[in-house]
Design a protein that fits this description.
The complex is a heterodimer of chains A (557) and B (590). With 557 residues, chain A is of the alpha/beta class. Helices cover 66% and strands 8% of the residues of chain A. In chain A, helix 7 runs antiparallel to helix 11, helix 10 runs antiparallel to helix 11 and helix 15 packs across helix 17. Chain A is elongated, with a radius of gyration of 36 Å. In chain B, strand 1 and strand 2 form a beta hairpin. Chain B is of the alpha/beta class and 590 residues long. The chains are: A alpha/beta (557), B alpha/beta (590). At the A-B interface, helix 3, helix 4, helix 6, helix 8 and helix 9 of A face helix 1, helix 4, helix 5, helix 6 and helix 7 of B. Chain A: One of its GO terms (cellular component) is plasma membrane.
């Protein structure tokens, strides 16, 4: 509620204008029945041509004024809503960008999509209450006065009757929405099925089963059809009654007014006007009813927005980072990362390697020290600026290839080219239409697994961190490419600290030093060749020759 | 979802869109198929609208009687008649809408089922070249838009049109000149509507796109939150998001600008009919051609005509969008379906490639004359640098793509002559892609082998070491996919492998089946794979050299040509490119 209030308060002049224009427009709607009544009474009945012309001119003029008021109201309210939506989006954007690694554990991604896609606009629609909502109340009051002057009894009947009819029809409409919601839910399911089939077309092309899926979809579609029949049976009643009940009410008014006219209590013109007022009075009452629904939904939506905005960012720690390049040490595994060298880490269990990367990157609490001081005590922002972990599923944002690679401003195309070459990604740039200007979809969906991995590598190289930690950087590329990357990576990172967690001999051969991790602990340290010669376990791990059944071909040697 | 290097290289080829004539024909066909319900609904709607027109008519009569000085009781019958007409209108329009709804539902079901059936018959090459994005949009947005149009827009516009026609008719009955003059607002309305409709679809499309782009951008920022922090992209993401917000604001202003012209002109026009009725009525009345009641009734008709015109105006834009969506849905039917194949299944299992050349449309050749014979039961590894054409070769072998020149045959029959379903039962292609379909575990397995029993399925899952299956609450009935239980990538891959065990093809083509998985997952998957491969011909596209090492033969593919072919030992002895790589990989110093 306070959030909605903030959205209104931050643009109160606009909200005020919306109220004024909204009221004027709605009152304007009631003017035409009045003018028509005068034209009938003063012009037609008396045969007074001048009066008739005057009133007709007034009808046309009033029509133009009401149309003008209508569009001003619509524009003002649209701006009010759009401003609110943009404001919500901006606040959300800043917050999401600031949250960082805290976020994934706190809110499922689908929730964010719902909040951004639906809730923000629903919160904005609630603001409609400020303009026409106020107008509706005012209009009702004005209509009361006018009707009272025609006849108090008739006025009481109309003024109480209209809300009563709306209150009867409102729940009916609600019911219509309820029935329709179930149908829409089922329809959504069916749409998902179709999307599912489209997404799985390639799998179906590889294994077969298309006919079965066509049949299954058709079955589901027939179910929706039957549900549609049931909904239609109810909806048609509701639609007929929502028109019919007000029409019956109007008939009652006509009857009352006609009797009064016959008895001379009111004029014929007034009788026609009463008919018109009653028809038009339903506009403000509808507005109030609908506005009420919107406000309720808006409050719910605002609550969901607030829930995301309330997630606190990671509390900052004050510790300073070491001034220059410093040694990283992980007591848990016993690993020490030497400054300015490239060290390979070959872990028996890949899970140990991932855990180690998480510790060194300060993603999990640990006893890791950086230049002698606890890494956990250092300000996270300072750590991120200097120590970078390249994760297997690091997110690729949509944009051109150049935008994806330019992780900070000031990177030149030449620098990009150097990183691309190091990651052996030249062929990707060449094969994509437009080269560096080619579009990369979210998550790199339009790239193959190997291409994504190389683009990620180039991207992280360009961040130029003091310490670069690579987790299986070449697991998805072929051996030829892997050999090239291994060579170039070492040259590119010369003089800077690099940790390569991998079991590929091609990569490990090009490192300065290798640590062999068994049961999560460093079992041996040496060059790749030394370890091959002295550590049978290491040799078995990286070369996989004797004894182990080769999984990919099922052969046993 | 994983694309493949070679597909993204080719230019995207959009799926076709049906032209006006095709759309018109298929709509006519839908209506003709149900002549009875369509005409019944129309007749009922007309009757209901006639009943709805009674009120102004009777009010006119009341005015005449009152003017003539009738007593109060004189109007009772007329007022009762109004109420009677309203009740009749309620009943008639309810029945009309129900009949119409049922027809609409049936039409919708036919359209969407046709669409899915045709989508499933699309040749996979066509789908890949167009990108699945287009097809996904057609299956969701377009099918829903057409559904809404059939369910809401068509009936609303139809009813409004009927009412409008009858209102004009009623005014005409009062006096022919009044019937013409009640259309006084039409010229301006039609002119501005034409103007609006020429611009609106594009503007609203842009607005919708900007909206979903903003949502996508925000969602991406949330999904990639860890990366935003690691690469310190907060500034860049905020800039990007702000640009999207600005774009949304801009597109919404554009549509608002259109409405700013459209609405006031149309609304101003609404005053004209009533004014015309009063003016003309005044003149006719003074000449004694009509009664005062007739003029009042005509004026009320003029007021009543506002609502149907309003409905038509509001829904015109949506109707237009519905037609556009319908032409995209029907467009799928214009693609020639995958050829069914005529040849009977060959008894042989020998897979032979002769002089195969291949290029993606508009590109240069990716394969330059491949000759290869795969012996039944052998394990053949295909290695080579990225972009050498390994995946393309795999697709030719699986019969998914046709060679531009040359032939791929199975047991002496060209694979493309085989019925696709028959072919898949014999040769299966396993890629990095694994898709878990919405449905139960059983649904996810059954389509690979329609005759499989529950026992077969459990056995297949056990064969690939799918130990997670034992922990599922409802066994084979556990729901998977989209919102239901999410499977770990390795589990999903195992499910895909269990499918293969059930499908039982004699030849398997593995295209880097484990490349996109993280190392832990990859290892588990490889173990499951071993169970599937037992006793089959295997062609493995590989980037791991140990795969090649253990294969019966190795083919080295470079720049679209097979440059080396032989057993691992032979190739190492030959001292070519493969040997060099092997030595470096193995840790031997040359």
């Amino acid at each position: 509620m306070r959030y909605l209030w903030w959205l209104v308060a931050s643009q109160w002049p606009r909200a005020l204008r919306g109220s004024v224009v909204g009221s004027a427009w709605m009152i304007g709607l009631a003017v035409r029945p009045y003018l028509i009544a005068r034209a009938i009474d003063d012009g037609l009945r008396k045969g007074d041509t001048r009066a008739l012309l005057t009133w007709v001119a007034a009808i046309i003029g009033a029509g133009a004024v009401v149309a003008w008021l209508g569009i001003i109201r619509h524009r003002t309210m649209t701006f009010l809503r759009e401003d609110a939506t943009a404001r919500s989006a901006q606040v959300m954007l800043r917050h999401l960008a600031r949250l960082g690694a805290v976020l994934p554990g706190r809110v499922p991604a689908g929730e964010i999509a719902t909040v951004c896609g639906t809730d923000m606009s629903q919160a904005s629609w609630a603001l409609t209450m400020t303009g026409p909502g106020v107008g509706a109340v005012l209009t009702y009051a004005v209509a009361s006065v006018v009707l009272w002057e025609v006849d108090p009894m008739l006025a009481a009947f109309v003024l109480l009757g209209v809300p009563a009819v709306v209150l009867v029809v409102g729940p009916l409409l609600n019911r219509l929405q309820g029935v329709d919601t179930d149908y829409r839910h089922e329809l959504g399911e069916l749409t998902n099925r179709a999307g599912d089939i489209v997404a799985g077309l390639r799998v179906l092309a590889g294994v077969g089963g298309r006919d079965l899926f066509a049949r299954r979809y058709a079955d589901r579609s027939q179910r929706l059809l039957r549900q549609g029949y049931r909904v239609g049976a109810i909806v048609s009643w509701v639609q007929a009654l929502t028109v019919g009940i007000p029409a019956l009410f109007l008939a009652a008014i006509v009857w009352l007014a006609a009797r009064m006219a016959a008895e001379g209590q009111i004029t014929v013109g007034e009788m026609v006007a009463v008919y018109g007022y009653a028809a038009i009075l339903s506009v403000p009452v509808w507005f109030l009813l609908e506005g009420g629904f919107m406000a309720v939904r808006g409050v719910v939506a605002a609550r969901r927005i607030i829930a995301v905005l309330r997630i606190p960012p990671e509390p900052g720690t004050t510790g300073h980072a070491p001034d220059g390049p410093a040694e990283l040490h992980d007591p848990q595994s016993g690993l020490t990362v030497p400054i300015g060298r490239m060290i390979g880490v070959a872990a028996e269990d890949p899970a140990d390697a991932i855990a180690l990367a998480d510790r060194l990157g300060r993603y999990t609490p640990s006893e890791v020290t950086w230049g002698g001081r606890p890494l956990g005590g250092v300000d996270p922002a300072a750590v991120r600026a200097r120590i970078l972990v390249v994760e297997h599923d690091s997110y690729l944002f949509p944009g051109t290839l150049r935008e994806v690679l330019r992780v900070h401003d000031g990177l030149t195309d030449a620098q990009l080219a150097a990183a691309i070459r190091t990651a052996s990604a030249d062929d990707i740039v060449e094969s994509l239409p437009g080269g560096l200007d080619a579009a990369v979809e979210a998550r790199g969906r339009n790239l193959s697994g190997g291409q994504r991995q190389r683009i990620r590598l180039a991207q992280h190289l360009l961040a130029e961190p003091d310490v670069l930690i690579l987790v299986d950087p070449t697991s998805a590329v072929d051996s030829h490419t892997e050999a090239r990357i291994a060579d170039r990576l070492h040259a590119y990172r010369t003089g800077r600290t690099t940790v390569v967690l991998a079991t590929s001999p091609l990569l490990l051969d090009r490192t300065d030093l290798v640590a062999y991790l068994r049961d999560g602990k460093v079992a041996a340290v040496g060059t790749h060749d030394e370890l091959l010669a002295t550590e049978p376990g290491y040799r078995a791990l990286v070369v996989r020759t004797a004894g182990e059944p080769d999984a990919a071909t099922g052969a046993r040697r | 979802m994983t694309g493949d290097a070679t597909h993204t290289a080719g230019p995207a080829q959009a799926l076709p869109v049906a032209d006006r004539g095709t759309v018109r024909r298929s709509v006519a066909e839908l209506a003709r198929a149900e002549k009875r319900s369509v005409s019944l609904a129309l007749a009922l709607h007309i009757a209901a609208a006639v009943a709805g027109l009674a009120a102004p008519w009777f009010i006119g009569r009341i005015v005449d009687r009152v003017s003539a000085g009738a007593p109060a009781s004189g109007v009772d019958v007329l007022a009762l008649a109004i109420a009677g007409c309203v009740v009749a209108q309620i009943l008639l329009s309810r029945t009309a809408q129900n009949v119409g709804n049922r027809f609409g539902e049936r039409a919708n079901a036919t359209l969407r089922e046709d669409f899915v059936a045709r989508t499933l018959r699309l040749p996979i090459g066509v789908v890949e070249r167009a990108g699945t994005g287009d097809l996904a949009t057609r299956s969701s947005v377009d099918v829903t838009t057409v559904g809404n149009a059939v369910r809401q827009v068509v009936p609303t516009v139809l009813i409004a049109a009927i009412r409008l026609l009858l209102i004009v008719g009623a005014a005409f009955l009062l006096h022919p000149a009044l019937g013409i003059l009640i259309l006084a607002g039409a010229p301006t309305s039609l002119t501005v509507a034409r103007w609006y409709l020429r611009r609106a679809p594009q503007a609203y499309l842009a607005e919708g796109e900007a909206g979903s782009e903003l949502t996508e951008s925000l969602t991406a920022t949330a999904e990639g939150a860890r990366t935003v922090e690691a690469l310190r992209l907060a500034g860049a993401r905020t800039r990007e998001g702000t640009a999207r917000i600005a774009r949304q604001w801009q597109t919404r202003r554009a549509t608002l600008a259109l409405r700013t012209v459209f609405f006031p002109v149309v609304e101003t026009g609404y005053a004209l009919p009533a004014a015309a009725m009063l003016l003309a009525g005044g003149y006719f009345l003074s000449e004694g051609w009509v009664t005062l009641g007739a003029v009042v009734a005509a004026t009320l008709y003029a007021q009543q005509s506002i609502e149907p015109i309003d409905h038509i105006m509001i829904f015109l834009e949506q109707a237009q969008r519905g037609v556009a969506s319908l032409s995209r849905i029907l467009g799928i039917g214009l693609v020639a379906p995958e050829p069914r194949g005529v040849a009977t299944a060959p008894p042989g299992q020998r897979l032979v490639v002769r002089g195969a050349r291949f290029c993606y449309p508009g590109g240069r050749d990716v394969l330059h004359g491949i000759d290869l014979e795969v012996r039944p039961g052998e394990r053949l590894a295909v290695v080579g640098p990225s972009g050498a054409g390994k995946s393309t070769l795999a697709r030719l072998l699986a019969g998914i793509d046709l060679p531009r020149e040359g032939v791929v045959s199975l047991g002496g029959v060209a694979v493309t002559d085989l019925d696709p379903a028959e072919r898949r039962r014999r040769i299966a292609l396993v890629t990095q892609e694994h898709h878990v379909f919405i449905g139960t575990v059983r649904d996810n397995l059954a389509f690979a082998a329609p005759g499989a029993s529950d026992q077969d399925m459990c056995r297949a899952l056990a064969a690939v070491d799918a130990d997670w299956f034992a922990e599922l609450p409802d066994g084979l009935d556990t729901a998977l996919g989209d919102g239901a239980r999410a499977l770990h990538p390795a589990d999903a891959q195992q499910l895909a492998l269990a499918r293969l065990v059930l499908a039982d093809p004699h030849t398997l083509i593995l295209d880097e089946a484990t490349a996109a998985l993280d190392p832990t997952t990859a290892r588990r998957t490889e173990r499951s794979l071993a169970a599937v491969l037992h006793g089959r011909t295997v062609i493995a596209i590989a980037h791991r050299l140990y795969t090649a090492h253990d294969a019966d033969r190795v083919a080295v593919l470079e720049q679209g040509r097979i440059t080396e072919l032989g057993s691992h030992d032979e190739l190492v002895r030959a001292g070519g490119a493969y040997a060099a790589l092997w030595h470096s990989w193995h840790g031997d110093k040359a």
